[in-house]
């Protein structure tokens, strides 16, 4: 994954965590990340070890934010509804209940 792709994924995951009325540019996390990316920009005449460390940290943050978001989605889908009927439970796990023709 390229560094720009990692940055885009990181910003996308940060956007998911913000309320709809806030812009990502006003987020302290966004400001911090962009400052670090700009500060550790490499020219063709220097090698920056910090940039490699920053890229690794950014990939770790993307993985953490994405996993946290997915966990919340799954938790809300399966655990936040209270009591369910037998039919609802069967639908969740992909079973069909036998039809009782009375």
Give your account of this protein's structure.
- It is a single chain.
- The chain is an all-alpha fold and 102 residues long.
- It has one domain (3-80).
- The chain has helices at residues 3-17, 28-39, 49-79, 86-93.
- It is elongated and about 80 Å long.
- The N and C termini lie far apart (59 Å).
Number of strand segments: 0
The residue ranges in which pLDDT falls below 50 over 5 or more consecutive positions are none
**How do the helices and strands follow one another from N- to C-terminus?**
HHHH
Helix content: 55-70%
End-to-end Cα distance, whole Å, is: 59 Å
Shape: elongated
Radius of gyration: 22 Å
The major sheet is characterized as: none
Can you give the mean pLDDT?
Answer: 83
Determine the structural class based on helices, strands and strand pairing: mainly alpha
SS summary, helix count: 4
- How many domains? The number is 1
Strand content is: under 5%
């Amino acid at each position: 994954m390229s560094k720009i792709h990692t940055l885009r994924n990181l910003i996308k995951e940060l956007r998911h965590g913000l309320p709809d009325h806030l812009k990502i540019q006003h987020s302290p996390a966004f400001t911090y990340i962009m400052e670090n990316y700009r500060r550790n920009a490499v020219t063709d005449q220097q090698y920056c070890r910090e940039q490699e460390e920053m890229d690794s940290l950014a990939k770790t943050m993307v993985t953490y934010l994405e996993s946290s978001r997915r966990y919340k989605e799954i938790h809300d889908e399966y655990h936040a509804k209270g009591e369910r009927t037998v039919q609802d439970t069967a639908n969740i796990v992909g079973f069909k209940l036998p039809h009782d023709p009375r």
